Amino acid sequence: MDRGAKLAAVSGSPTVRRRRIARELRHLRERAGMNLEQAARQLDMSKSNLSRIENAQIGIKPRDVRAALALYQVTGTDAEALIDIARGAQQRGWWQNYSDVLPVWFEFYVGLEAEASAVWTYEAETVPGLMQTEDYARAVYRLTAGEDDLDRKVAARIRRQEVLHRENPVELSAVLNEAVLLRSVGGPEVMSQQLDHLADLSELPNVTIQVLPFSVGGHPAMTTPYVIISFPDAADEPVVYLENLTNGQALEEQDHVRGYTLVHERLRKMALAPDESTAWIRKASRNRP
């Protein structure tokens, strides 16, 4: 397959397309021997705007992609494939219908998650969003964000979970601190239903849930929960996603991804085996007060 055909095979998520076009334009500019200031001047845009385009912080219109490709002397099938990617990046993802309740930085994450082939995550306090029941999600939002737009926030969270059940589902590996399963959120009934839901999910062939018990003591992810997202196309490199109360951050450098991947592999070895974890979760559900 030539480069143009490979580019044309890029995924359907507009977020992933925007990320791909950003990386390609940066590569082509560097190959042309131009710095940001030189290229921006030729393209009649500000240096800061071009930088934001190349970092996938903002999108770029197909006509501007065409102008950039002409500047970088890219023609033929490669050029047309990149322009097609730019057109796809202007499409709307389902999550954009929830832009009134999803922060821009989290919309970016959901756009990546929607096209993921694998999601590896460690969580210290709460059940990850991909595995929450509606009642648990509602309780979490009440505690962390109040009552505003509660139903729409929960609806968006539940919609995200379709990636676990689609034709080519996400391969999910979740390591959960024991505290996630012992901390009662929403009351005994809500928590019991959440634990049963986790145990049921762990029976899916594409879902692996492991409990990290207190008995293991210290571990390499004590300072931060994380999500590692991989994609079906090897040209779309994995991303590490970190989140705090008011913002999210995507780390794309290979050293960061490699470091978090090694941490996840270590956590999986320290945690209970998947079948032991499922039994642990079911027992915890039965024994709740």
UniProtKB/TrEMBL annotation:
Gene Ontology MF annotations: DNA binding
Pfam families from the UniProt entry: DUF5753, HTH_31
SMART domains given in the database record: HTH_XRE
Annotated keywords: Coiled coil
Keyword Disulfide bond: no
Coiled coil spans: 22-56
Domain HTH cro/C1-type: 25-79
Cross-referenced InterPro entries: Cro/C1-type_HTH, DUF5753, Lambda_DNA-bd_dom_sf
Protein name: Transcriptional regulator
Biological source species: Phytohabitans houttuyneae
